[in-house]
Write a structure and sequence with these properties.
The mean pLDDT is about 95. The protein is mainly alpha-helical. It is elongated. It starts with a helix and ends with a helix. Helix content is about 80%, strand content about 0%. Helix 2 runs antiparallel to helix 5 and helix 4 runs antiparallel to helix 5. The protein has a single domain, classed as Up-down Bundle (Ferritin).
Length: about 150
Amino acid sequence: MDRTEYYLELKRVFASEFSFYLKAANFHWNVEGEPFYQLHLMLERIYNEVLESIDIYAEELRALQIVTPASLSQFLQLTYIQDENAPGDWKGLLQELLLDSDMMAMKFQQLFMVAEEFGDHGLSNFLADRQDAHKKHSWMLRSSLK
């Protein structure tokens, strides 16, 4: 991967992380069912954790002189996360978010390796932390589905 492709992938994963945050917030606001309260709290913890990382990620991009995507149209063009406009039952919501979280962990892992190749060690540390965060989110979501 050359530097241009690397920078584009950093932007795509940034847009995906923001999209993941928005989807988790959507599900938090709209979840219904018997385990409502526990799911409502878990989803809030997930989207708050992701939201806290967004500004740090944007600053990492700016440190590389990458213009950070910052509009809904840019996010829609770049994201790997599929939009969800009609949330269904709570199990379906969790399953969808789990698949997205697993994908995000994989994307962060891939970007970590590329960042290391380019010697962006501070950024790679951040990417490793994001991979770990998504693994934890996936664990929580997976366990809630059992």
